[in-house]
Amino acid sequence: MKTLKRKNKEIEQQPLEYYFNLQYPVTIYPDPEGGYVAQIKDLSGCLTQGETLEETMANANEARELWIETAYEAGDDIPFPNTSVTYSCISVEQG
Questions:
Q1: What is the pLDDT of residue 87?
Q2: What is the mean pLDDT of residues 48-56?
Q3: Is the pLDDT of residue 88 over 80?
Q4: Domain ranges of the chain
Q5: Where does 3-74 sit in CATH, by number?
Q6: pLDDT (average), residues 34-45
Q7: 49-76 residues labelled b (16+ CB within 10 A) or e (exposed)
Q8: Whole-number Å distance between alpha carbons of 51 and 25
Q9: Strand partners, 9
């Protein structure tokens, strides 16, 4: 387990698998040019896209893991998921 120095205080970092198991809200937007864009707002700059909803969600999961792994290896803070989630629904027809 890594030991991190934050603000003159050493803390133990959780194993990478711990962070992979955190559930982050994913926001999906229809792309005007086709397909979808996914954003994980809690992970700054974590965006991806896909042609179908299934592909977009798979890509979002991969982007989340890569974002977390990169931050972990660099010793950067990994934010916890926002627990105040709001839901909205957009009707999308696939065809």
A1: 55
A2: 97
A3: no
A4: 3-74
A5: 3.30.160.250
A6: 97
A7: bbeeeeebbebbbebbeebbeebbeeee
A8: 20
A9: 6
In the numeric block, the tokens 């916890």 are attached to 80
Instruction: Give the residue-averaged pLDDT of 53-61.
Output: 97
Cβ atoms of 74 and 53 within 8 Å: the answer is no
Q: pLDDT of 16-39, one tens digit each?
A: 999 999 999 999 999 999 999 999
**Sequence-separated (6 or more) residues with CB below 8 Å from residue 44:** none
**Token digits of residue 61:** 């999961």
- According to DSSP, the residues that pair with 46 across neighbouring strands are 40
More confident residue, 94 or 69: 69
Would you state the structure tokens that stand for residue 58, as one six-digit string? 């798979």
Query: What is the spatial order of strands in the sheet that 46-50 belongs to?
Result: 27-30, 36-40, 46-50
Question: What DSSP assignment string belongs to 53-81?
Answer: HHHHHHHHHHHHHHHHHHHHHHT---PPP
